[in-house]
């Protein structure tokens, strides 16, 4: 006879079993037949042949074949304080992880119920500090979905090994939380349930960081501080905010990153530390990219130029981590001569000072000449390396960016210039010709936003606007990137509300309607235009 006694709901359930016949001794649970196979074979206690990305047994039965996280980098010494330093972590080698196989396997994982936000704990999450199924999902999403959107396709594959970041993150709650926050922000565009989580992790980081600063436990040159501050900037970009809701938090975070890089430069020089770790170059290039793009959107970021010197950044921007690789392969985000982006930043800052005084006008003309020289340099490289598809795409993007910078420079020098100006028309058509043939994948879409913003304000036909509108929609569909959404939303407002045609060409132009091309010299910044505040 079997009887079950159940207590009240507030207490635990107790079960007693009585039977008239003796029970047989319990059999021990079957042994796990594989310790290194896929999760599905471990769960089913089957021998896994460990074929990747899909083992034979999973392929045979149509199961989802999901693998454990790959081994992380090796820490050479015991971490102290807030976690291990970059110098204590083995940087990735040329023969590291097969990124393609890993991503295909995780694509399958993202299709299962692991996206459910729960509090189930598991011993198989792969990283210390990962406590819930949601965090497990986001840690994988961070590595396999979010990080690839930051890395350009031309970069050396060693930059795609994020082991060193994950090692630091697994031993520092602030870093892990900002990784989870940025991943949740990106994932939140397709699954809104992750939005509250992203804010939760972000607030946790800000609170911990303020406490560390208030208690004076940071010096300013820590590895963890460098990483956290860079990802705070990326978190803000990922929000996709514009105008009245455009969060100038990114400006304060960038200012902090500028100071950290300045302190770091002095310390690294004094201690003669190696500058070749991928994280250092990636962070320096991220700062450069975010500085000139953010300044274009919000003139408050102009102040960044007073917080660092390019001489301090140069060693990081020119450190070649992977010997034998070409220069563009060692530049994971910018891809080409970093001085082009320095010039672009200066042009942006000048555009906020229209009308220019004599000194500024002279400087603007110098910057335009620099851009012409860079364009010639890129053109010659295209003749030499044009057969390599990766290089060809990079050079096409770089020339388009230079064209956009020249459009902004010419408008800044002559504010009365209209989009019908022959020089502007030629630059726009050259850029549009590139956009019609270049491939824009989900990786690196953010790097097209700045030139696209300028080109989109300089077009003068409905056909060109229709093309750019569809292009931005396609970019958003592929990337789910906050920076793409921000630009797409702004341009839809501008194209609807502003006059893009020239009175020289079209008789029915509304003379009282503000001109689209004038948006480029909006004193407060592109995203601070009054139309975007409604």
UniProtKB/TrEMBL annotation:
Q: What is its main location?
A: nucleus
Gene3D superfamilies given in the database record = Zn(2)-C6 fungal-type DNA-binding domain
Any one GO MF term held by the record is: DNA-binding transcription factor activity, RNA polymerase II-specific
Domain Zn(2)-C6 fungal-type: from-to ranges = 37-67
Q: Extract the InterPro entries matched here.
A: Fun_TF, Zn2-C6_fun-type_DNA-bd_sf, Zn2Cys6_DnaBD
Record bears the keyword Ribosomal protein: no
Instruction: Check the record and name the Pfam families matching this protein.
Output: Fungal_trans_2 (PF11951), Zn_clus (PF00172)
- Entry GO CC: nucleus
* Region spans: Disordered: 1-34
- Biased-composition ranges, Low complexity, are 1-24
State the UniProt keywords alphabetically: Nucleus
> What subcellular compartments does it reside in?
Nucleus
The protein in question is named: Zn(2)-C6 fungal-type domain-containing protein
């Amino acid at each position: 006879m079997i009887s079950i006694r159940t207590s009240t709901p507030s207490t635990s359930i107790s079960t007693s079993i009585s039977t008239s016949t003796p029970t047989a001794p319990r059999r021990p649970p079957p042994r796990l037949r594989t310790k290194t196979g896929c999760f599905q074979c471990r769960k089913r206690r089957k021998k896994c042949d460990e074929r990747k990305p899909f083992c034979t047994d999973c392929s045979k039965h149509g199961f989802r074949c999901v693998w454990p996280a790959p081994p992380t980098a090796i820490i050479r010494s015991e971490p102290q304080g807030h976690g291990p330093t970059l110098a204590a972590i083995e940087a990735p080698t040329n023969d590291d992880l097969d990124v393609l196989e890993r991503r295909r396997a995780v694509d399958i994982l993202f299709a299962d119920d692991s996206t459910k936000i729960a509090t189930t704990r598991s011993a198989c999450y792969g990283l210390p500090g990962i406590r819930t199924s949601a965090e497990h999902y986001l840690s994988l999403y961070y590595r396999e979905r979010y990080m690839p959107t930051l890395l350009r396709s031309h970069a050396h594959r060693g930059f795609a090994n994020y082991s060193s970041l994950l090692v630091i993150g697994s031993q520092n709650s602030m870093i892990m939380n900002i990784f989870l926050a940025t991943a949740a922000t990106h994932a939140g565009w397709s699954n809104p349930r992750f939005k509250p989580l992203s804010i939760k992790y972000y607030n946790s980081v800000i609170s911990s960081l303020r406490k560390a600063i208030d208690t004076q436990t940071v010096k300013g040159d820590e590895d963890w501080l460098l990483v956290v501050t860079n990802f705070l900037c990326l978190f803000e970009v990922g929000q996709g905010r514009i105008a009245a809701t455009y969060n100038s938090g990114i400006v304060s975070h960038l200012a902090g990153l500028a100071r950290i890089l300045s302190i770091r430069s002095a310390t690294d020089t004094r201690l003669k530390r190696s500058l070749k770790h991928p994280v250092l170059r990636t962070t320096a290039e991220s700062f450069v990219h975010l500085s000139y793009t953010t300044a274009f959107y919000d003139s408050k970021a102009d102040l960044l130029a007073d917080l660092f010197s390019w001489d301090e950044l140069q060693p990081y921007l020119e450190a070649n981590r992977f010997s034998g690789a070409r220069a563009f392969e060692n530049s994971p985000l910018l891809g080409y001569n970093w001085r082009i982006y320095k010039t672009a930043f200066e042009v942006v800052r000048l555009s906020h000072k229209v009308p220019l005084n004599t000194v500024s006008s002279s400087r603007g003309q110098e910057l335009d000449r620099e851009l012409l020289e860079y364009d010639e340099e890129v053109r010659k490289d295209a003749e030499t390396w044009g057969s390599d598809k990766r290089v060809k795409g990079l050079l096409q993007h770089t020339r388009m960016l230079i064209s956009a910078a020249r459009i902004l420079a010419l408008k800044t020098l002559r504010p009365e210039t209209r989009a019908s100006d022959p020089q502007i028309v030629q630059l726009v058509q050259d850029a549009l010709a590139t956009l019609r043939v270049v491939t824009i994948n989900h990786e690196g879409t953010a790097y097209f936003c700045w030139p696209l913003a300028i080109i989109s304000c300089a077009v003068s036909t409905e056909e060109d606007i229709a093309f750019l509108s569809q292009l931005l929609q396609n970019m958003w569909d592929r990337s789910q990137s906050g920076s793409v959404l921000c630009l797409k939303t702004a341009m839809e407002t501008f194209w609807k509300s502003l006059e893009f045609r020239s009175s020289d060409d079209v008789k029915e132009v509304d003379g009282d309607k503000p001109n689209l091309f004038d948006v480029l010299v909006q004193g407060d910044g592109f995203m601070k235009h009054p139309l975007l505040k409604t």
